[in-house]
Amino acid sequence: MLEYNLVIFGSGGVGKSCLTMQFVRNVFMEKYDPTIEDVYRKTIEVDEKQYSLEILDTAGTEGFSAMRDLYVKSGHGFCLVYSVTSQATFNDLTEFKERINRVKDTSMNIPLILVGNKTDLVDERVVAKETGQLLAQKWGCTFLETSAKARANVNEVTEEDLFATIKHIFVFLF
Ligand code: GDP
Ligand code: MG
């Protein structure tokens, strides 16, 4: 079975763990220990092929370390998450991107997805969808807006759509 390592980066509180949990366990966790950094495994099927996905849900915002560099080296794909309710978390992603470029061979096309989470918080939105789209254009990567939370609150059809979206974050990389 083909194995892929996906690394989730982003500032604290943007919903990295919630997105990971939704994907791996199909649940929304209102509270998730912000200090937990862990690897989750899930087998996924894409075009009738099975893949073993290893998802690294990173924690902590205090810059990069030798440890982080190791993550980056072993990652096949990266998910950069911000919250649409926080401009700072959007700005923070540039540093993650630069680090990925530095550690990886930049001449390679690194699978990358930019994710704006918490779209259910309509009244608190400060980062416009277009702003995310522009950055994704600049980086030449895919862009998605998600709500890890809404998935648990919507009717079946929409739920399925949302699941497809969340799943897409991961399967797109292949
Ligand atoms: P992490 O630090 O990036 O792993 O963030 P968490 O996944 O722990 O989420 C941080 C907080 O944001 C938690 O209180 C979650 O309940 C909340 N949260 C995560 N995703 C969403 C979302 O899509 N919508 C809303 N409203 N809250 C979310
Ligand atoms: Mg977390």
From TrEMBL:
Query: From what organism does this protein derive?
Result: Didymodactylos carnosus
Q: Name one GO molecular function term.
A: G protein activity
Q: Which residues form the signal peptide?
A: none
Q: Which SMART domains match?
A: RAB, RAS, RHO
Report the main location listed first in the record.
membrane
- The name under which this protein is listed is small monomeric GTPase
Biological processes per GO annotation? signal transduction
A GO CC annotation given for this chain? plasma membrane
Q: What class of enzyme is it?
A: hydrolase
- Please, which domain of life does this record's source organism belong to? Eukaryota
Q: Which UniProt keywords apply?
A: Cell membrane, GTP-binding, Hydrolase, Membrane, Nucleotide-binding
Q: Which InterPro entries match?
A: P-loop_NTPase, Small_GTP-bd, Small_GTPase, Small_GTPase_Ras-type
Q: Report the locations given in the UniProt record.
A: Cell membrane
